[in-house]
Amino acid sequence: MQYDFLIVGQGLAGTTLAHQLYKRGLSFQIIDNNADDSTSKVAAGLFNPITGRKFVKTWKADLLFPYLNEFYSELENELKDKFYFPIGIYRPFVNTEEQNDWTAKSYEPEYSSFISKSHSKTMGLKNIKDPFGGILLKYSGYLDTRKYLSSSRAFFQEKHSVLEKSLRVELFETFTEESPLFYEGNKYDKVVLCDGNGALSKSLFEFLPFQPVKGEILELNLNHNLNFTLNRGVWIVPVDNNKVKVGSTYSWEIDSGITAKAREEILEKYKKLYDSEFSIIKQLSGIRPATKDRRPFIGIHPKNHRLGIFNGLGSKGTSLAPYFSSEMVDFLLDKKNLTPEVDIMRYFI
Fold it and tell me: Do 263 and 271 form a contact (C-beta atoms < 8 A)?
């Protein structure tokens, strides 16, 4: 069989790119070993237009958030599954200075479209520690990444577009400008690496400065339901019934195990934000495919135009993947320019 593309990796990046190629009528296969502990499956899938300690508007928010809402909503209808939850995020203020700053900002056009309401005093809701009030954000929520990936995998499996295995670096020794990739009797005109922290991206795109970051989260069981997301120091994301995800930590010590230090850090911050009894269901860890400048790696290898990369989405993959996967396809098919901040040519010398 002959295909236009082979997508390596079925995490958030590879899955979203596959949907974009499918919408454009391209032929492709996805190769992925379906690891249960992949970073995309562990992630909380939070998307948030106002982030950081200083409440800064997310990079490209005006483009990313309207697009992701349409993209995930349409996919739910097509896949006949529920995995997209556009619910509000409440961010309590820590002091009166922050309260005053954000009361003023809520009237500024740059921020007002992302703010549902600014509270100058506590919302008065049980359990939330917000004596100075806070802001309720819109265009926010979470993606159930595990369900999104499994539902998408089933969709592509029905179309015989999934290979459940890993791809070895050695297979690329004869993959050149003049020669497509041949693998198990199939021919692929182009290959796009979406393998996160996998060996292929780091080996074949050795000039790109990956800076992976480890993150750990907790799944907790509460004695009540939570119907919106909280974010201050940690985020608390409702999952189903009384279950929530809480996190996340950031560590440059890259290993795959969970740690008591991370658990204590998360729980300490959780208790400062939310006053509720809980039981720990489990603790999870993952390695985010982050980059030196915190911008994705997107483009075609400068020495092999059959080899592409769509990677490095880091902790904001849920919001970055839809818009930039569309830009990647426009680049591959129509030679449209990539956004300079994500184009890998920024690092090729």
Answer: no
Pick from 200, 165, 174: which is nearest to 309 by CA?
200
Greatest pairwise CA separation for the chain in angstroms: 66
List 92's β-bridge partners, or say none. 134
Go through 190-213 and write b for each residue having 16 or more CB atoms within 10 A of its CB, e for each that does not: bbbbbbbbbebbbebbeebebebb
311 touches 195 (CB < 8 A): yes
As a dihedral over the C-alpha atoms of residue 147, residue 150, residue 153, residue 154, rounded to 10 degrees, the angle is -100
Tens of pLDDT, residues 236-260: 999 888 899 999 898 887 776 899 9
- In contact, 220 and 281? CB cutoff 8 Å: yes
Position of tokens 């499994």? 150
pLDDT of residue 168: 82
**Position 68, amino acid:** L
Mean pLDDT to the nearest integer, 38-64: 85
Q: Which residues make beta-bridge pairs with 186?
A: 183
Contact 310, 192 (CB under 8 A): yes
Using one digit for the tens of pLDDT, what is the confidence trace for 97-109?
A: 888 888 777 788 8
Q: What CA–CA distance (Å, rounded) separates 99 from 121? A: 9
Cα 207 to Cα 202: distance, rounded to the nearest angstrom: 8
186 burial type by CB count under 10 A (0-12 exposed, 13-18 middle, 19+ buried): middle
Helix (H, G, I), strand (E, B) or coil at 322: helix
pLDDT at position 128: 93
